[in-house]
Amino acid sequence: MRMTCWLTGIALLAMIALAGCTAQLSMEDKNSLAQALESAQRAEASASRAEAAASRAESAADRAETAATQAKSSADDAQRYVDQANSAAMRAEESATKAEKAFEMTLRK
Q1: For the chain, first and last CA: distance in Å?
Q2: Domain count, the chain
Q3: What domain range is 93 assigned to?
Q4: What confidence tens digit (pLDDT) does each residue in 21-77 have?
Q5: What is the reported pTM?
Q6: DSSP class of residue 28?
Q7: Are 44 and 11 in contact (CB under 8 A)?
Q8: Which of 53, 67, 88, 100 has a CA positioned 20 to 30 A from the CA of residue 13?
Q9: Residue 103: enclosing H or E segment and its boundaries?
């Protein structure tokens, strides 16, 4: 944004400063001046496009960061579910062992 403002200011100052001199300039100098002004305008347009591209890149980076945060959260949730499943499996195994021992005890009586 600053770059665009500076380029606009410079182009305007150049036009104002040179406006009074154009009557005294030769045709070749006038053409050179016109080319310089066109170049300044193209540079201003390029700076504006570069700012827009930088803004889009920043927005994309923000979206990527949000997606990465969500992916990490999902991975953490998945790990928590795996841990819960493992805990439930160990409890089920302990219950099965106790049931087996109880069954054996009933067979001995």
Answers
A1: 90
A2: 1
A3: 2-108
A4: 555 678 888 888 889 889 999 999 999 999 999 999 999 999 999 999 999 999 999
A5: 0.53
A6: H
A7: yes
A8: 53
A9: helix 27-108
